[in-house]
Amino acid sequence: MKKFYALLLAFLTWGVSAQSNVTLSVDMSGYTAPFTTVHVNGDYNGWCGTCNPLTDMGSGIWEVTLPLTADSIDYKFTVDGWTDQENFSGGESCTKTKGGYTNRYLRILGDTAVGTVCFNSCTTCATAPPPPPPASGGNVTFSVDMSNYTGSFTTVNVNGDFNGWCGACNPLTDMGSGIWEVTLPLTSDSIDYKFTVDGWTDQENFSGGESCTKTKGGYTNRYLRILGDTAIGTVCFNSCSSTCTAPPPPGANDHTVTFRVNTANITVGPNGIYAGGGVLGGSNAVALSDIGGGIWEGTATVNGVNGGNFVFFNSPSGSADWGTKEDLTGLSCADPANWNDRIMPTFTQDTTLLFCFGSCETDGTCSTPPPPPAGGNVTFSVDMSNYTGSFTTVNVNGDFNGWCGACNPLTDMGSGIWEVTLPLTADSIDYKFTVDGWTDQENF
């Protein structure tokens, strides 16, 4: 059956190559900033910037028809190359989030006219946008409270698109009590900016989505609309809040955690039991000792208020031996967003955590048997008869072998068929077939 799936996948991959004419159209009538050209960028053109300009069709509509061979594309509309771009939050009906980036997504099943959409929207522009505000600007007072900043510094600066992110151009004045301030005459109607320390020695770092920030071109900075003389009000460094809560002293939330695990339901390997992963580190981060009755125990110092993840390992051979960790897939104590590691509770004092290996039970009785071990002998088979390049060997690469290149060569079975059987311990794998190590590879 696995052999059949591999052959079917190869056939489908090679079969999709027809060219389709795809028409993309965007309504820019609601876009208020000045621009010259609209572009479309995507994985099909390497996000190249100015490669695919759209044509101004009038009434705010810009359009382009592209000959594409892919069966699907990730893409977005941009302005003057990458001067500005659409920014989606994720979850919109026309978007797809992959690798932390949210872009438009289109499945191509032949010649396609997508239909006109509003810039930065999955729908049409329902109503005419309001007229742009008049040119603005004014004297802007920046004020930041540095009382929570724990590093040493001499001067605070403000950097933004209004000064070319110049570094030390605009220093603030020390007003006392941790407050630094400066007033600047600005001509823009809006600015992106942030506070920095001693030029660019250190800077504010925002995650995106904060009330005072805007993300553009992959960078998140403070954003301000200027409609005249403006005093922003004092904000805390690296925060949108005006209230700076004093941070706890270093180590104030560190507590000793005693990790105990009952191994009555497993056979302990020759290297013993460890706790690791997540907040602890590698698979052999915390060595546990057999204290009798099948119970293994070890201690570590952990920040109790942060929570996090960890997991137990049965006889790892090194810090990266993740294949020996307990399987908690689908259990309530597992975090599916972090490789199904255990969810660590928060605590405010020294704590003992008792579990059964491979179970969410917290009394350590091991009344529930562990899940059966994952893995088995897997046969990989691929038909290379349609491959037009020259090659010596076919390999299989995946997360199970660290994408190592030439580690697992297949055997030539004749008639274009290459095959190998490997003993695997994981319950699932990501993999692809490659040629002569990484000389060439499947591309989906």
In short:
The protein is mostly beta strands and 444 residues long. It has one helix at 2-15; strands at residues 20-27, 38-42, 55-58, 61-68, 72-79, 84-85, 95-98, 101-107, 112-118, 138-145, 156-160, 173-176, 179-186, 190-197, 202-203, 213-216, 219-225, 230-231, 235-236, 254-262, 273-276, 286-287, 289-292, 295-303, 309-314, 334-335, 341-343, 351-356, 376-383, 394-398, 411-414, 417-424, 431-435, 440-441.
Tell me roughly what share of residues is in helical segments: under 10%
Counting DSSP H or I runs of 4 or more residues, the number of helices is 1
CA(first)-CA(last) distance: 22 Å
Stretches where pLDDT is under 50 for at least 5 consecutive residues are 1-16, 128-134
How many strands, what sense, and barrel or not for the largest sheet?
Answer: 5 strands, antiparallel
Characterize the quaternary organization of these chains: single chain
Question: Using only CA atoms, what is the Rg?
Answer: 29 Å
Task: Work out the number of β strands.
Answer: 34
Shape, please?
A: flat
